[in-house]
Amino acid sequence: xxxxxxLQLVSPPARPLAVAYCRFSTDRQNESSLADQEARCRKWAxxxxxxxxxxxxxxxxxxxxxxxxxxxRLLAKAPRAGWDALLVTDGSRLSRNTEDALRxxxxxxxAGAVVxxxxxxxxxxxxxxxxxxxxxxxxxELYIDNIRTRTRDALxxxxxxxxxxxxxxxxYSTERVRPGDEDSPKRWVVNEAEAxxxxxxxxxxxxxxxxxxxxxxxxxxxxxxxxxxxxxxRKLAGGKGWGHSTxxxxxxxxxxxxxxxxxxxxxxxxxxxxxxxxxxxxEGEQVVREDPSLAIVDAKLWARVQGQFPQRVRLGTPHAxxxxxxxxxxxxxxxxxxxxxxxxxxxxxGQRLFGCxxxxxxxxxxxRNAHTIAExxxxxxxxxxxxxxxxxxxxxxxxxxxLADFLAAAEKxxxxxxxxxRLAAYDEAIGQAEARVRKLAxxxxxxxxxxxLARRLKEAEAxxxxxxxxxxxxxxxxxxxxxxxxxxxxxxxxxxxxxxxxEDVSSMQPEVARAELARLFDKVTVTPREEGDxxxxxxxxxxxxxxxxxxxxxxxxxxGTGHCGGGI
Length: 568
Hints:
By secondary structure, the protein is of the alpha/beta class. The chain has helices at about 35-45, 70-80, 90-95, 100-110, 130-160, 190-205, 210-220, 245-250, 300-315, 355-360, 375-390, 400-445, 450-475, 490-505, 510-520, 550-560, and strands spanning about 15-25, 50-60, 85-90, 115, 170-175, 185-190, 260, 265-270, 275-280, 285-290, 335, 340-345, 355, 370-375, 520-530, 535-545.
């Protein structure tokens, strides 16, 4: 009997891995909703033998920029994820900018992932794909440019005709020219309650009060400021109440004289950072309209106030930071009492002191933290916070559990900080949509059956449902995996490197030191605690250990991996 080869069990080949990217822009494209895009990508993957392991989403984000949270998470994970493909339903979902689209495909290709259009099946590696991508990118750019041009022209016509072209201004409200008609333009009207506050601010400044003193009094009397939540504005923590800059901007706003100016500035977006900056437009390009009926202050009071500004500047003292080197702690410290940002309050004898900006600008009614902390003391305490956090991994002889608890808390805080502003935006949109639904329902009930009102009510209800769905998408952590955890070897390398960092931070260029600290520390909360005549400072912070490999490589390259007073 012939010898038989032993039976070999052959495991089926592993399915190639894919991720999907879905984007929903601000123009309510129902046919391109996040759910529809994800379903189409999964259907293509199932039909072609791919396994979708993760879905990255950007809700309400424009494709004209790459600075989108979901896309940035995708790009951060791509080099080490081992994906075989990135699925999109349309090239414009990835980017509507030709240069950005080609660069994204190169970056993903270098990471080993091919971009696949789940609608047409085209791959970024196909012959002629680059030409087609370029053509589609140009078409997308033209689409965006046409929308901008049409929108700008329409708004310019409205501004020239005396109607509102958007925006808000304290002291004014808008109302429909034809109430109940959603297509009717809006016109400006004086809000008498707010106008009384504007006149008071102008009168007090003209009588000799400073902008800080005015802001402090308004806050002490609990008068709502332009950026308070009750007026429909959104601000980060510490943004509530009147600030001296808000008062100064009000005193310089010529709209209160009845002069409405549109297209005064041109906004440009930085291609690398995504930041927007404004430049003045030539006088001939601006749309200026005089309307004395909308003037809140008279010409005489306006002239007195404007004449006070140059005189106040000459008599005032130079700013504490004028001519000084920037601090490595700028932008890192936050007040533990009110949640506002801390900044340099003064610099006696060259010693920079940090204090709560909300207290100095808005007064004790907003924040009672009048204490200041020296820069070198804050740096020393920050080093102690880091050392204590690293040593905690020895706590109770269970370093793995301490590490897991610490990183879980840091990840929870990071998620909350990232989603809170967007959730607040969706909450505001939901509130506006609910108000519109109620208004249309009341009109329909009052006027009886109307085909047009019924259509608008149905659209408003659909918009409300979309806003609620998008909020759920943002709030859900289902599409995001926990952050990677540093190993004990990485933490051991960090120990020595971080010791050298805090030894050298005072001698570094401030910009370099600030960048190094920002890579390590997240939001640093500084809280004073009074004990008799003494002030005890407490500093707490999370750490940016979301990409430990990159962090270790950076620190090792600069400081080496020597130990500093012990190991982990």
